[in-house]
Amino acid sequence: MQGDIPKDKLTGALRRGSVKKHVAAIHVSGKLTLLQRKLSNVLLLNAYDRLGDAQKFEMDARTLCMMVGYNSNDFDTLKGSLRGLAETVAEWDMLGADGAQEWGVSSLLSYAKLKGGVCEYAYSPALAEKLADPKVFALINLNIQRRFTSGHALALYENCYRFHRTGSTGWWPLDTFRRLMGVEDSAYYQTYKHLNAKIIKPAVAEVNKSSNIIVTAETRKRGRAVTDIRFVIKPNPQLAILDLDDGTGLRRAPVYDRLRAMGVSDRLARQWITQHGEDVVAQKLAYVEAQDDVRSPVGYLTAALRDDFKPEKPVKQVAKSARAKTLASVQQIVNGRTPTQRDADKRLFMSSLTQANERDDFERHGWMSALNRDAIEAFWRELFPNAFEDVAT
């Protein structure tokens, strides 16, 4: 979700003479709790690939709870958070290619419902159109957002990260900043001393500790009173591994090197991994490598992914082996997930691994990782217990 990003103030005309294409910003009230903000990002990630052609979206409720840090059965908290998103206003202020200014507001979710273990939700058509524009919304990496413990810090990160390529947010009036942090109605935070001590400094410290950017607050005064604030933004080299927006994360995937060795371009390799998921690409790659006398491996792999080529003879498995049945169940579940869901599943599972060797083995072998066999089975049993009913325990 890369593209042009705002280069001046957060709100207002957003005009600069050198900008030819329209620029846009969508602002969400800072009153969202930390978990609500995480929930909003996960729902957007789940819906993003189909924002242009689908009117509603679905996600497994247990998966959703786990991804945002709830107990997987804590549907009461999930209901409260979904209610909060439906009651929260998103506001946009855009300059179009024709030079016309557009302002609008919409609830973050037009509706949400839970039924049969599935969360169904939708965005208003106007908001969906804005969110689908890659120039509007910067991808918030889920590996990063899970590291945050403060809603104010995550709000600051989101509002700074969209400016990370320009190096500065530009000057925000303090009233705008208070609104972004969700404290505009608090008389206590009308005093800059309190705002700085309780909101700005702790949020800056957590962003610098937990994210892929380092921010520094700068203020502007009128007389002795602080009137405006901006944040200077630099990359955080210690946590740059978390920044996947530029394709760095995809290039670290083991299957990426295999694709490049075959002659697949960097762009196409990253596109395939994003679209199909590492596991599927690896399977099709192994299928193509096993064929004899292939004149154009890249072209054959393209067809294999497009038309879902499968081996004529199934891989032999031990018929009565509980382990084999478990692997088959896991593979069946994974194959039934969308590319976006597969990516989210991997990120969620990876975040639960504490040992470097476990993470390395999972990165190499995915859901077939022998070192993480028990953890993988427990992970999928938690989400899809019925899928393992015929497997001996």
From TrEMBL:
Q: Which Pfam families match?
A: Rep3_C (PF21205), Rep3_N (PF01051)
The name under which this protein is listed is Initiator replication protein
Concerning its family, UniProt says: Belongs to the initiator RepB protein family.
A Gene Ontology biological process noted in the UniProt record is: DNA replication initiation
Enumerate the transmembrane spans.
Answer: none
Q: Which domain of life is it from?
A: Bacteria
InterPro entries in alphabetical order: Initiator_Rep_WH1, WH-like_DNA-bd_sf, WH_DNA-bd_sf
Residue span, Initiator Rep protein WH1 domain: 19-160
Q: Which GO terms describe its molecular function?
A: DNA-directed DNA polymerase activity
SUPFAM superfamilies listed in its UniProt record: Winged helix' DNA-binding domain (SSF46785)
The species this protein was found in: Planktotalea frisia
